[in-house]
Amino acid sequence: MTCDPFALFASWCDEARASEPNDANAMALATVAADGAPSVRMVLLKDHGPDGFIFYTNAESRKGEQLAANAHVALLLHWKSLRRQIRIEGKAVPVEGAVADAYFATRSRDSQLGAWASDQSRPLQSRSLFEARFAEIQARFDGRDVPRPPHWTGWRVIPERIEFWQDREHRLHARTLFVRDGEQWSRMLLYP
User: Fold this and answer.
1) Strand, helix or coil at 104?
2) Within a 10 A sphere around the Cβ of 119, how many other Cβ atoms?
3) Quick one: which of 182, 181, 178 has its CA closest to 2?
4) N or C, where is the chain less crowded by C-beta within 10 Å?
5) How many beta carbons lie within 10 A of that of residue 174, not counting itself?
C-alpha cells in the first residue's frame, strides 16, 4: 500500500460517489467549544487534496465561532454502502477570500441568497420570519449577481492524522493510519 493518503482518499471518494445514494461528500465535523464541550454536525466536503479538506459555512454560526476559538477538529466520512469510513484529525484554517469567492459563485442563486438571509445557529421566532427575510434579500439582489457575504467562508482542514477503516467479516476490520511528520507521512496498521 502506498504512503500517500490523498491518493487512497481520492480513490475511496470516487467509489463512494458511484455507490452512495445521497451526499457521498457528507462528513461529520467535530469541534470543541471554549469550555471544552464537544459538538458535532454534518457538513459537505467541497474540495480535497494534499493541502487539506475544504468545507464552507457561516463564520458567525456556532461551528464558526468554535473553529475561530479552537482550530483542532476531527472529520468523519462514513459510506455505509461500501462499509468504509475515513477519520481525519487536524487544524482548520480559513481559506483565502478568492477561494471562498470562487466557490460561492458556483452555488445556486437560492443558496447564495440563503447565505445572506440566515443568521445560522441563532434563535428563530418563526419560519415565516425567515421566509420573509429571504424574500427581502431576493428583492435586494434582483437582477444582479449575489456577492459572497462577509461572514460566509470556507475552512481548510490541514490533516495531521488520516485513518482508513474497512469493515471485514467477524469484526476483523482493516485499519490503516497515516500520520504526518512535517511534509512526510508514515503508515501503520492498527488492530481493529
Assistant:
1) helix
2) 13
3) 178
4) N
5) 13
**Residues present in the chain in total:** 192
pTM of the model: 0.92
Contact 22, 83 (CB under 8 A): no
Is-catalytic flag, 171? yes
Give the chain's domains with CATH numbers: 5-107+150-190 (2.30.110.10)
- 68-116 per-position pLDDT tens digit: 999 999 999 999 989 999 999 999 999 999 999 999 999 999 999 999 9
Catalytic residue among 84, 156, 168, 171: 171
Question: Which residue in 22, 40, 23 sits closest to 31, CA to CA?
Answer: 40
Q: Please check whether residue 155 is in contact with residue 67, taking contact to mean a CB–CB distance below 8 angstroms.
A: yes
